[in-house]
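haha ok so turns out i had the wrong file open the whole time. this is the CORRECT one, sorry everyone. sequence first:
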Amino acid sequence: MFRTKNLFSVLLAALATLLAAAPIAARADIVVNVDQGVTQPLPIAIPAFGGSSVGGQVSQVVTADLQRSGLFRPLDPNTFVQKRIDVNLQPQFDQWKQISAQALVTGQVTNDGDGRLRVDFRLWDVYAGEQLLGLQFTTTPENWRRLAHKIADAVYEKLTGEKGYFDTRVVFVAESGTKAKRIRRLAIMDQDGANPSYLTDGSYMVFTPRFSSNSQEITFMALRPTGASIYLLNIETGRQEALGHYPGMVFAPRFSPDGRKVAFSVEKAGNSDIYVMDLGSHATSRVTTDPAIDTSPSFSPDGSQMVFNSDRSGSPQIYVMNADGSGAHRISGGGGRYTAPVWSPDGKLIAFTKQEGGQFHIGVMNADGSGERILTSSYLDEGPTWAPNSRVIMFFRDSAGGGPRLWTVDVTGRVTAQAPYPLSASDPAWSPLLN
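then structure:
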């Protein structure tokens, strides 16, 4: 759908050679060091892209993406000194220094003869007076927002050294109605809240949707008067497939990293254990047999282990085991009740919900249980899900007497914000980067 090429390969090759030979201090002002935390976001100027009338909309989406990350501070366009900007010409850097811009993004959108939309953009280091990036994207006109997200991802990656997370989607449960007659529909939207749509009609309750690794399938729990079932849903075709029928309650499904298996919990007679189904053969294996409640399995990125929740020690805690169920051991060590663990895409951290001191928290710990950090606290914070770059967590927050809303927090706990979806929603799941 998208094509990308380097517009200035010769220039960039020469620039890379110069930067390799230059003192490190020459680039210090333009590097966003996410590992040490950022006390002040990087000032960046993003003028409206020229050319097509869509140009202004594209630059607005890029601006909003970078600003929400908390790592960048887009400057007010009313302060721009240089008003006319040609993407093919070097900017007047002195005029951008006047407003303290450290980075500058310029671009132009063109309607090609074949009906496709093309955008050329460049990222500049204002104080070094050098181009850092020059790329071109093409797509169909209706996909202009995805094009803007891809530009934001490219800028984010160049300035932070980490992959972006803007060209992604979020599947969640959209909630409406009264508490006595709650309607829970499966819904999907872009990560910035745009293009929301419903995937189920609300005639039955849905819970805990989760993406597959290819972003095209979702697994979720459906609760009907006849009982609970786990389903697969193909987003493109709308086809649903039930994953067998089990006595008792079945819940908390999640894909393996390769998308070939689904782990879930089955509750019978007050006891719940974790099962894994091979999606090719539908063969199912039981991986825990403890008399306690074992639930909420989440695979490690390499598929060799699972983190899960269990009350086998007397209260809900976090455990890790091999994917076949062997070697289970507790990793949570603090006070309180731990639930909903989920492994980060890079394998370094495990996010969780924690109930302690009359409040709910979203926290993270290292994969071995060390280094626990609480990121949020409120009346009710639950259901963490990772952005594909392991930098941001989405969750849902409910207040006493109010409906749940989607929120985000970065791994430092410094940047917390309500997600741009204005209605009641819960159980979010973040997709991988789209192709």
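The domain at 3-160 is CATH 3.40.50.10070 (Rossmann fold).
again sry for the mixup
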